[in-house]
Specification:
Layout: H1 21-30, H2 35-46, H3 53-60, H4 65-83, E1 86-96, H5 122-135, E2 139-144, H6 152-164, E3 166-167, E4 170-171, E5 174-178, H7 184-192, E6 198-199, H8 207-213, H9 222-226, H10 228-234, E7 240-243, H11 251-269, E8 275-277, H12 297-310, E9 315-318, H13 324-331, E10 337-339, H14 348-351, H15 372-381, E11 385-387, H16 391-395, H17 400-406, H18 410-429, H19 433-452, H20 458-468
Helix pairs in contact: 2-4, 3-11, 3-12, 4-12, 6-7, 11-12, 15-19, 18-19, 18-20
The structure holds S-adenosylmethionine and iron/sulfur cluster (SF4).
Amino acid sequence: MIYSPEKLKIEDQRMVPFIHDEEIWDLINNTKPDKDKVNAIIEKSLNKNRLTLEETATLINVTDPELIENIKQGARTLKERVYGERIVLFAPLYVGNKCINNCMYCGYRAQNKDTLRVTLDKDQLISETKALEDDGHKRLILVYGEHPSYSADFIAETVKIVYDVKSKNGEIRRVNINAAPFDIDGFRTIRDAKIGTYQIFQETYHRETYQKVHKGGVKRNYDWRLTALDRAQEAGIDDVGIGALFGLYDWRFEVLGLLRHVNHFEAVYNVGPHTISFPRLKNASNMDIDKNHLVSDEDFVKLVAILRLAVPYTGMILTAREPAHIRNQVLQFGVSQIDGGTNIQIGGYAKKSHNQQNINEEQFQINDTRTLKEIMEDLIENDYIPSFCTACYRVGRTGEHFMEFSVPGFIKRFCTPNALMTLAEYLEDYATEEVKIKGYNLINKKIAELEKENQNTETLKERIELIKQGKRDLYF
Ligand code: SAM
Ligand code: SF4
């Protein structure tokens, strides 16, 4: 049963709304940044501490270009010190776009009669998954509209179908979900399908704006959505992703809303969300939105750096909504995951309709239309390690971003070697000769760097040889 916010059980009452507009505005209006204070806050984050709402508000209020540069440099340093050069790759796979809601920013809203409605059947889902595997993907996020057809059982079934698809050496090793909120039983059903992260964006944390832009359907209920990931937690899904759709309301409010959501998770569950997303509003079919709060490139880059510093332990996801030049800039601030070769036309991967966007067939416009091959090549050339690693999730080490952050040596022992092995798999199975050469040069360079840091790399080197000989799915 999905549409039952009014039937919250007694034990769910503790999932009470935790966003208070006055608190957030008070912080934005009454914190004044000065140089010493701002630099001390950056230092606190570099010492691996999450920032308070007040400290984050202080960074938000910085306008001095020199101090803004310090914030960006702080985010770069944090990334270099803590996370290194790995970038995890994934692809979104839209399963169906029927929707009962009227989110005025979304091409898939119920009222929009110009949108072609499609739900992949089993064969089509298999074809899409195969096409993604044949590109080299190992991690997907399945995306659904909100509709009675997309029940928890339906979602669980689609997850199982995707996990079962094997094409040559390809397979999907981690399926994440972006779908509507469910009740606790629904989330349990989906948990049992062995999903990775369950992602739900609040869109805007500002209640009044929320009511303005969600004109119909169950999604109009702000509290049902705000407490969704609490119900997921109660159902045993402890790997959750939060996000705000930047451009609906004042970006400063949304950054603090996200941080308040993080605090709530830490306070109630003793663990923060696994990932934070910060999609920026893009054009969509018949979009009907007040444009007063669109976020400029300059503010967007600044807010990503602030989020990095505010919650230094959380994974950050940046999607192909943003053009390549913005992605490249923001990658330096410790983004941990990006999508590659994205095609959000439903059924588009198998049709290879890449680069032929049709706004009436897609939820919104994407702006990075590079293929996965092109993105892999760009990452390798820029000394990033593209990674398809799914090891933590598969050996039951949940909250890997938190472990990367907090367990000394974790990245050197696990993440970097695993990233290099998944890169070697990609090079063997999907890369051109030219990229293969560049990729192995990068692998050798990174192994040498590990050795310089006294890391034993013998097993890693043996495993890379095994991958060259055809062995797959090796990890630490
Ligand atoms: N129907 C589910 C829901 O609403 O939660 C799935 C969400 S949708 C398929 C994924 C996300 O895309 C939404 O949560 C929203 O933040 C984002 N989105 C919707 N319209 C957008 C637009 N015009 N530009 C950028 N992102 C958009
Ligand atoms: Fe439906 Fe999600 Fe689009 Fe809203 S954002 S109209 S719920 S698909």
